[in-house]
Design goal:
It is a single chain. The chain is mostly beta strands. The chain has three domains: 126 residues, Sandwich (Immunoglobulin-like), CATH 2.60.40; 39 residues, no CATH class; 134 residues. Helices cover 5% and strands 43% of the residues. The chain contains two helices and 27 strands. Strands 16, 17, 18, 19, 21, 22, 23, 24, 25 and 27 form a ten-stranded antiparallel beta sheet that branches. Strands 5-4-1-11 form a four-stranded mixed beta sheet, with no helix packed on it. Helix 2 links the parallel strand 12 and strand 13. The radius of gyration is 31 Å and the shape is elongated. The two termini are 60 Å apart. The relative contact order is 0.10.
Length: 354
């Protein structure tokens, strides 16, 4: 028989099976549940003692573990009382790292908590857990640091825990997130085509968009610190969230008129971002002035530098360019946007959304 499928109410000549072996069950169960402690993390913070299988050292070389439950290798395990595990002495000259695991032992027919001894070494590493279907399958709960010459052992918690399932909404992901605990990802499918498709996260710092999905969003960047603008200025801008509180953007502002745009007021010509940048740090952006006509006594290509200075609480980025008079002068304010030229900027920056 080359085709096997299960579980059906009764066996069939085409390979269907009603009964499952332990290995059949393990193969199937591993598909829907990975190894984890049966405890869902939904609070912004925990003390170690509050978690299942939390551990402490007693009597020098004994680890005491609180009760807990776990899904390991397709099998369910639960301890209803405090357990202790002894750690073997290490009289050698080199330290060692041991692990405490939940071991699902199929030949033995049970799951149990055991210690697995590592090898002494100048730079010790923890043993790799066994994961052999039909034999032994282990999930690590703790690493135990075992110093040389029987020094005092220490415990490091390494257990994987359950997390809330991802949630999809047709719209209003923020409102949906308000009714869930922390630790949730949400997908806003924008089924009403009112905004954009996005992924978001409800965590310790609150609700935040983690990334936009699909096409980039458009916006209209502005040129500021100018007098009256001539007609014929074309504004193009795209942007998206690419990570929590992180924006990627590009702008292309084209002066198609026959009039140079002059700076007015204080400060250089500037442009606007789609989302306010963080005011807690200065941020730099790279751009180009494309000036094929050499207008306004500027070269055909000019490297531009955008600066959002520390403390900036607006969406405005100031534009600078290398001094056209003396290289040693460094950067000057950009005071003219030449006729028939374009200003192009792109970059990634930290926003002020958190």
């Amino acid at each position: 028989m080359t085709e096997i499928s299960y579980p059906f109410s009764e066996p069939s000549e085409s390979g269907g099976q009603a009964a499952l072996s332990q290995l059949d069950w393990q193969d199937m169960a591993l598909m829907w549940a990975g190894d984890r402690v049966d405890f869902r993390l939904t609070n912004p913070s925990y003390s170690g003692e509050a978690l299942p299988f939390s551990a402490r050292v007693i009597n020098g070389r004994t680890i005491e573990l609180r009760p807990g439950a776990a899904w390991v290798g397709g099998f369910y395990y639960r301890s209803n009382s405090v357990l202790t595990v002894d750690i073997e002495a290490n009289p050698t000259e080199k330290p060692r790292v041991d692990i405490i695991v939940v071991r699902a032992d199929v030949p033995k027919g049970s799951s149990n908590i055991v210690a697995v001894k590592g090898q002494p070494s100048k730079t010790p590493i923890a043993p790799r857990p066994q994961r052999i279907a039909g034999q032994r399958w282990e999930m690590v709960l703790h690493e135990i640091s075992v110093p040389a010459k029987d020094g005092a052992i220490t415990v490091k918690q390494c257990a994987p825990f359950d997390a809330p399932a991802r949630v999809a909404t047709p719209w209003n992901a923020r409102a949906t997130a308000a009714h869930h605990g922390v630790g949730n990802f949400f997908y806003d499918l924008d089924s009403n085509n009112n905004d954009t498709q996005l992924e978001s996260w409800n965590g310790r710092d609150g609700y935040m968009i983690t990334r936009h999905l699909g096409k980039a969003k458009t916006y209209v960047p502005k040129i500021v610190n100018t007098g009256k603008l001539p007609s014929g200025i074309l504004y193009r801008g795209i942007w998206r969230w690419i990570a929590p509180n992180t924006v990627s953007f590009s702008i292309d502002i084209n002066n198609t008129s026959n009039t140079d745009v002059k700076q007015s007021g204080t400060g250089p010509l500037s442009f606007t971002l789609p989302v306010n940048p963080s005011s807690s740090i200065g941020q730099h952006f790279s751009g180009q002035l494309l000036n094929s006509g050499y207008d306004a006594d500027l070269p055909n290509f000019v490297a531009l530098h955008g600066m959002s200075h520390l403390g900036n609480k607006t969406d405005v980025v100031k534009i600078y360019h290398p001094s056209s008079k003396r290289l040693g002068e460094g950067l000057d304010y950009l005071l003219t946007f030449p006729r028939r030229s374009s200003i192009v900027f792109s970059g990634t920056y930290e926003a002020n959304a958190l």
